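does this look right to u?? magnesium ion version
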Amino acid sequence: MSEDDSGALVEEARRLFSGRVEFLLSAPALKFLPEPTVPEVAFCGRSNVGKSSLLNALTGRRSIARTSVTPGRTQELNFFEVGSPTQFRLVDMPGYGFAKAPPSVVEKWRRLVRDFLRGRVVLKRTLLLVDARHGVKPVDLEMMKMLDEAAVGYRVVLTKADKIKASELEAVLASTQAEARKHPAAFPVVHVTSSEKGMGIEELRGALLADART
Ligand SMILES: Nc1nc2c(ncn2[C@@H]2O[C@H](COP(=O)(O)OP(=O)(O)O)[C@@H](O)[C@H]2O)c(=O)[nH]1
Ligand SMILES: [Mg+2]
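got this back:
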């Protein structure tokens, strides 16, 4: 894609995301999923990674997705529609890696997420969020493996980039990129974002729109 094209894409994405973005429904099990009528892009990551904040930053809204100080409470897939008429949906997947979750809760999470990833025909891409302060953790590797096995292409997105020094960010970006290259379904290019400072948000919006249209 030429630079002109990607500029146009970013602008189109900006317009789209500043228009209609609406919560559709919350699905605690697969039987509650909405009809697969439009493309979808899903978001996943450890609890507290900044998933809700990123969704809010992308849509330029303060609280389309609820940010929370009590991580690991929601075990649902939350669907948001973008565009009028709806062009695609964003899917907020339940966070993982929360401490002290009973095995039954973890198992329920695993089944819901795995079955969604494997069976959702309209799912175009997943964004896997990783806290820039921590880098890829064992639980993230498990998630990457699930995505690889479901053959769902994913982008690794570093969050909270404003929280660390530039030199540290460079190091974590390099190691995350190296990890991504080992995974067949992962994009080799890792995104760097800060929902707080707006860093990387425009580009990610453009990438999302391109993903939804693949
Ligand atoms: N400094 C900073 N803090 C962030 C950023 N994104 C999220 N946070 C904070 O991290 C915490 C968890 O964010 P949240 O979006 O609720 O995470 P979620 O559990 O993954 O949905 C909240 O206190 C947010 O304010 C960011 O880009 N920069
Ligand atoms: Mg959240």
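The longest helix spans residues 103-119. idk if thats expected tbh
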